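Dear H.,

Thanks for agreeing to be a second pair of eyes. The structure we're designing against is below in token form, covering all 151 positions.
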């Protein structure tokens, strides 16, 4: 259990790394990406407030879900500064990412289900192409697999 003096104490980069379970270089990277913030004390040493621990936890979970760092930064920047993200904050952030996750799940499911067939049209399935892509109509849409990611 932390004493009141320890609880109010600012954290060094090493303490943030140790308590969050990430490398010091990762803390520096997160800061460079605008995901977390620090300041310099009178001795020019980097210091973090305790709310950074929750922010690092949010970043780690979101990254594990495959959320881009840019999207994570946008979500964190929408929060008030110097405040630990709350359950309600997490709920709002996760709602923003749900559509993207659902879209990626659908694309991965389609890829998995069609993995052994035509990739349309790269072309790795010469035997099936006359059936799925007669006269190379997909080739008019550009190079690469046109059926898997029709963006």
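And this is the sequence the design step returned. I haven't edited it by hand at all.
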């Amino acid at each position: 259990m932390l004493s009141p003096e320890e609880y109010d104490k600012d954290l060094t980069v090493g303490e943030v790394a140790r308590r969050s379970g990430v490398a010091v270089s990762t803390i520096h990277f997160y800061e460079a990406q605008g995901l977390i913030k620090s300041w310099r004390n009178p001795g020019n040493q980097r210091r973090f407030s305790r709310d950074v621990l929750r922010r690092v936890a949010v970043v780690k979970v979101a990254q594990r879900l495959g959320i881009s760092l840019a999207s994570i930064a946008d979500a964190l920047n929408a929060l008030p500064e110097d405040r630990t993200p709350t359950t309600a904050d997490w709920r709002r952030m996760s709602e923003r990412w749900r559509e993207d996750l659902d879209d990626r799940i659908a694309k991965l499911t389609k890829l998995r289900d069609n993995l052994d067939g035509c990739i349309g049209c790269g072309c790795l399935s010469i035997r099936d192409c006359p059936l799925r892509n007669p006269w190379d109509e997909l080739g008019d849409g550009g190079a690469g697999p046109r059926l898997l990611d029709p963006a």
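Two observations from my side: The mean pLDDT is 81. Strands lie at 39-40, 46-47.

Warmly,
E.
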